[in-house]
Amino acid sequence: MHWMDPRRALDRSRDAPNTSKETNESFRQTTQVEQRLTLLAEPTEMTSLALLFVVPLLCPFSDSAETNLALNKPAFQSSEYGDPAVTGAENAVDGNTNATSCTATATNDTNTWWFVDLRAAYEVTQVILWNRANYPERLRNLVVEVTSFNPVTYPAAYRKLCSRFPGIAGTQENLTCDSPLIGRFVRISKIHVHGTSEYLALCEVDVRGNPLQTVDSKH
Ligand SMILES: [Ca+2]
């Protein structure tokens, strides 16, 4: 009795020309199974890779652009015209675009602004403004900016320009950012001519964009 390397024994059994009919049939079936497994393995691996890297990137983006990111988020303004319950900053994020639900700053405010905290960083692409039909001049000569820093806590922090709107806003103005901007806060300010006092009034602010994504190969 002598020792034989198992790998050589397997090779010899596959190559043996005079094995029994039963052995040949078993070998043929084993080979067919191996071939089928090989054929199945390639598309299965490719499909898995596609699910890992493509699906997580595409699905959230396609839905998010249809969502108003500002809806019911915390909002603030430079001053109060009167009772905040009537003309407060949150009136611009309550989902009501009518003139019955608008903001207003104080009479003597010469540096008016309003901003919403989206509560997370987004890639902001568009800001839609709704103006009131009566006193439309209260929404004019506007600057729309996006920043990662709270404009009250860090008033000197860098703000990225989304869009400028000269003149009086119509009932609805769709302002598309010159390029998508990443940030958590969307700020709207009014350019006051020679420091004059003007109200800033917004009936609704609708912010569109995409959540920030990180590639996660585990999902
Ligand atoms: Ca409103």
Pick out its properties.
2 domains; binds calcium ion; single chain; disordered N terminus; alpha+beta
Total count of helical runs of at least 4 residues? 4
Order of helices and strands: HHHEHEEEEE
Give average pLDDT, whole number.
Answer: 78
**What proportion of the residues is helical, as a percent range?**
25-40%
CATH topology of the largest domain: Jelly Rolls
What's the CATH H-level homologous superfamily of the largest domain? Galactose-binding domain-like
The Cα radius of gyration reads 32 Å
Bound molecules: calcium ion
CATH class of the largest domain: Mainly Beta
Description:
With 219 residues, the protein is of the alpha+beta class. It has two domains: 6-53; 67-211, Jelly Rolls, CATH 2.60.120. Helix content is 26%, strand content 30%. The chain has four helices and six strands. Strands 1, 2, 3, 4, 5 and 6 form a six-stranded antiparallel beta sheet that branches. It is globular, with a radius of gyration of 32 Å. It starts with 5 loop residues before the first helix and ends in an 8-residue tail after the last strand. The structure holds calcium ion (CA). Residues 91-92, 94, 96, 101, 203-204 line the site of calcium ion.
